[in-house]
Amino acid sequence: MSAAEVAIIDYGVGNLRSVEKAFRASGYEAVVSGDAGVLGAARRLVLPGVGAFGACMNALRERGFDRLVRERARAGTPLLGVCVGMQMLFDESEEFGRSEGLGLLGGRVRRFPDTLLVPQTGWNQVEQKSAHALFEGIEANSFFYFVHSYYCEPHEPEVVRGETEYGATYASVVARGAICGVQFHPEKSQAAGLRLLRNFAGLGARDR
Amino acid sequence: MLAKRIIPCLDIDHGRVVKGIRFASLVDAGDPVEQAKRYDAEGADELAFLDITASSGKRAIVADLVRRVADEVFIPFTVGGGLGTLEDIRAVLRSGADKVTLNTAAVERPEVIGEGAETFGSQCIVVAIDARRRDAADAGVGWEVFTHGGRRNKGWDALEWATRAERLGAGEILLTSMDADGTRGGFDLELTRAVADAVRIPVIASGGAGTLEHFYDALAVGRASAVLAASLFHFGEYKVSEVKNYLRARGVVMR
Question: pLDDT by residue for chain A (208 residues), tens digit each?
Fold first, then answer.
């Protein structure tokens, strides 16, 4: 069996079918897999996630995929964290006290203040702060679909590629090399979202 | 800036779109996937499906519909209508829906809200409230919650139920005014505003849309985060894009 171009990590969380179909609509075949062999060989990995940060991390750890994701990302395999999947790239979250993340990017995950409607639900804009292959062909300030109660606060400003305003400005797209995260749901963000998935599926060694 | 949302709603029976005021005089109006794609192309921010199928095979019929929509439409969509158990919710979400609406089942067994939120996340649990004024002429005496498609008066206060649903874990409230529904005379703005001010989760206003200005009022006066309409879009009075262009011109943030 040849290695999958894109593998979506199935660890029992979330609506993976939508992500798979969105890759197909963007012109790439992605496989949904919970098999360590498939995930270990795939050319690119997508880490989805919905619901509670701690529950997602636990489900990932139970399957040993936390180590797999860390090792493959550090070896240069393009990785895309989506929603809570993006949040898990960071060191820790303040959800329910404190939960440890993957630590691939420095920073923490914080809850929106109670003065806002939480979760943020709906279409919001992404201001592109610095160029990345993920943004190719996507207009400045395009709208994407967001649903989340927590947001990422990266330590290093240079990983922030896109910012969104909700109460305050926060990081909605991050990347260091081929380790990428988006707070919104590209699979639910119509044309701009499909383009972003296509850009991710095209990421290779040259973009590291 | 977070945009306000316009959400067309499709009534579905046995996997087909039906037109008509809720349960009366239904006419087959085509394939849900085709209609969903059309609304998507017009700029709908989300879609809602109200499934009224009454048969023992309902779950499989709904799951098949959801799969077909999810294969071709890449905006969020919500499915409701007779969902009552965690297994119902799981089947719909697994097939590709983003959220479910719970109505009668949530009133009869409010714990299902918390169970759903804990298992799948608050973001996919929308509690639908059908509310009617205690006194048609006086919003001051409040609104009562109805179930079973508006046929049974539960007697609960709508504001109290909305805040309780929020505490239990609802991620959004879909609020329908039974007084305004079907009249095209505008939303019950006092109801919408009262609920929106009482909770810290998004409120979707429903029932009564007849003119472009009604949409503006629901968002600006009623403080809703989103507006849902069915027949106005079905019967082609307005396209979603017309509504959004109008609202944009009046300064409302639109995608």
Answer: 688 999 999 998 777 888 999 999 999 999 999 999 999 999 999 999 888 899 899 999 999 999 999 999 999 999 999 999 999 999 999 987 789 999 999 999 999 999 999 999 999 999 999 999 999 999 999 999 999 999 999 999 999 999 999 999 999 999 999 999 999 999 999 999 999 999 999 997 444 4
Q: DSSP string covering B3-70, please? A: PPEEEEEEEEETTEEEESSTTSS-EE---HHHHHHHHHHHT-S-EEEEE---STTHHHHHHHHHHHHH
Q: Is the peptide bond before A119 cis (omega within 30 degrees of 0)?
A: yes
* DSSP bridge partners of B172: B126
Cα(B4)–Cα(B45) distance, rounded to whole angstroms? 9
How far, in Å, CA of A6 to CA of B203, rounded?
37
CA distance A78 to chain B (A): 23
Given the residues B130, B179, B181, B217, the one annotated as active site: B130
Residue A143: closest C-alpha in chain B: B255
CA atoms in the 13 A half-sphere facing the CB of B24: 2
- CB neighbourhood size of A92 (10 A): 16
Residue with tokens 């409607």, as numbered in its chain: A117
Enter the pTM of the model: 0.94
- Cα separation, A23 vs A202, in Å, equals 11
Token code pair at residue A128: 């592109």
A148/chain B closest Cα distance in angstroms: 8
Q: Closest to B3 (Cβ–Cβ): which among A51, A124, A193?
A: A124
User: CA nearest A194: which of A27, A76, A12?
Assistant: A27
| Contacts (Cβ under 8 Å, ≥6 apart) of B141 | B133, B134, B135
B98: annotated active-site residue: no
Q: Do B4 and A190 touch (CB under 8 A)?
A: no
Residue B26 CB burial class (10 angstroms; 0-12, 13-18, ≥19): middle
- In degrees, rounded to 5, the angle at the alpha carbon of residue B67 between the alpha carbons of residues B25 and A184 is 110
Catalytic residues of A: 83, 185, 187
Q: What is the DSSP string of A60-124?
A: HHHTTHHHHHHHHHHTT--EEEETHHHHTTSSEE-TTS-EE---SSSEEEEEPPTTS-SSEEEEE
Alpha carbon distance B83, B174 (integer Å): 15
